[in-house]
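quick one before i forget lol
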Amino acid sequence: MITSKQRAYLRSLANKIPALYQVGKDGVNDNMVELINDALEARELIKVHVLDNAFMSARDASDQLADATKSDVVQVIGNKFVLYKESKENKKIEL
């Protein structure tokens, strides 16, 4: 679990990065979980965009993906959300 100060720091880093993945009308599936898990291992911090045609909110998608990837939800804002997971091998972000 990350603290509120760490969350604020991660939010500031997330402002500069583009959304890597999109959640569409198919929602969250096993393939997406695998892709996001790989991206989190490589980058530690990723942003995901939930499309308007998705049948779930950004909050629902972020909670599902955070549970599936064992990551932390840093921020949900509008139709985007940010996930963080400390990398086992490529530690880039120092909290």
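fyi Helices lie at 4-14, 30-43, 58-69.
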